[in-house]
Design goal:
Elements: H1 3-13, H2 48-76
């Protein structure tokens, strides 16, 4: 039974040829980038000023979310070490 781990390791090393690339673990993404971005969370706007404020808050939330997505994309698409 002691030879079993040794045999398994030898069999697994035969799976990797010289032409295959090594498997790299996925990049770590900071948890603050995975948090949702709130847009406008107030009451339903009743006046034009409130509607304007709500639209600005929505736009800022959307821009923050898009910035987070682009940062995550840069992290995941980095060159992997060889």
């Amino acid at each position: 039974m002691r030879l079993y781990p040794l045999c398994c390791l030898l069999l697994l090393t035969g799976c990797f040829g010289r032409d295959s690339e090594p498997i790299h673990p996925p990049q770590r993404v900071p948890t603050d980038l995975l948090q949702p971005v709130p847009g406008y969370t107030g009451p339903v706007p009743q006046t034009e000023g409130q509607l304007s404020d709500a639209l600005i808050a929505e736009r800022r939330g959307r821009q923050a979310a898009n910035a987070k997505l682009s940062t995550i994309g840069e992290i995941l698409n980095e060159e992997k070490p060889r």
